[in-house]
Amino acid sequence: MNRLFDKSIVLACCIAAAVGLAVDARLVAAFCLGVIATSLAEVAQGNRARRASETASYVYIIAAVFVPPFVPLAPLAFYDIARRVRREHAWVALGIGSVFAFALIADLRTDALTARTLLLTAILSVAATLLSLRTAQLEREQQRMRRTRDELQERALALEARNRDLADRQDYEVELATLAERARIAREIHDNVGHQLTRASLQTEALRVVHANEPRIAADFADVKRTVDEALQLVRASVHALNDNAVDLSVQLDCIVEGARSDGGPQVELEALAEHAPANVANCFAAVLREALSNAMRHAHAKTITVRCMEHPSFYQLIVTDDGADATPASSSNVAEGMGLASMRERVEALGGTFTAGPRVGAGGWRVFATVPKPQGDEDR
């Protein structure tokens, strides 16, 4: 847009400089060729096309040296030359400018053009060159600012992902600490209270046997034994409840999916064929699902996301697929593997599982696949 505005001003000034000249075929041809050359410079894409447009600008200046009617439109060519000139080729542009200046002097002496036209053309050529250099510097600054903005945005996204991962890890550590404390309390109750109640039950049974010839006393000891046994059963139930570290995996995944659903967002379908799973497996799958949903919605722009969680005889399995773009859903600064994918891989492999993520074979979209083996002794649960 800046270039178009600049060239509109330069073209208007060139037309003003040409006012008063005789309108003939050469002047019309000069005007048409100048406009075509400067237009090609704007639409040229690729190195070859740009070199061709640059060559056309040089040719136009050379034509202006020999054909005076080409002189008033020469500032447009100087604008395009200054736009793409390199430092190592600056001497070429300076040489062309010097030749053009001598041509203006020659035209002035031969009265080929009016002094007004030649003076305006000289001033306008210098102004167009400076304007082109200024616009080029402005474009470089805008490019630099865009790169800086993109880098800051990438860093912000990476920091956000890192903070989310740290929060998940903190929740995971709190859960582990809670389970460890519950296990410690369960051991304390089992080793102390449980053993004492078992001892009291055995002693009561022994006293009942000793007083078997005394029915009333034996009946009292039998009542005491039943009470102690009931208390022992309650203690054992409490110990098992405290030591039970299994959670309802399907409910936990359903809560995450419900939280991800929103009006206008992607359609998320959940198929959970696993109920109870160890807390570390449930926390791992929950973190993987949250990250996979976030990547699918934010990076892949998916419209449909399918989540499948299954319990097999020897392992748990989580599969998340979407129909979004086939690109790594991660920060673009990490080409090999994004921070989110690395975090998911670390969580799964820490439990001895396997993790893969990549484009779906034979179909569009992305696929996240994670399996975690069951602990020994849990296969037949």
Please provide a written account of the structure.
It is a single chain. By secondary structure, the chain is of the alpha+beta class. It has three domains: 2-146, no CATH class; 164-245; 247-373, Histidine kinase-like ATPase, C-terminal domain (Heat Shock Protein 90), CATH 3.30.565.10. It is 67% helix and 11% strand. It has helices at 2-18, 25-43, 47-66, 74-84, 90-110, 115-210, 215-243, 249-260, 279-298, 339-350; strands at 246-248, 267-273, 276-278, 304-311, 315-322, 354-359, 366-373. The longest helix is centred in the middle third of the chain and has 96 residues, at 115-210.
Instruction: Describe the sheet with the most strands.
Output: 5 strands, mixed
In spatial order, strands of the major sheet run 2-4-5-7-6
> In sequence order, what are the helices and strands, one letter per element?
HHHHHHHEHEEHEEHEE
In total, the number of strands is 7
Task: Calculate the terminal CA-CA distance, rounded to whole Å.
Answer: 70 Å
Distinct helical segment count: 10
What percentage of the residues does DSSP assign to strands (E)?
Answer: 5-15%
Broad shape:
rod-shaped
Question: Residue share in helices?
Answer: 55-70%
Rg value? 41 Å
Q: How many domains would you count in the coordinates?
A: 3
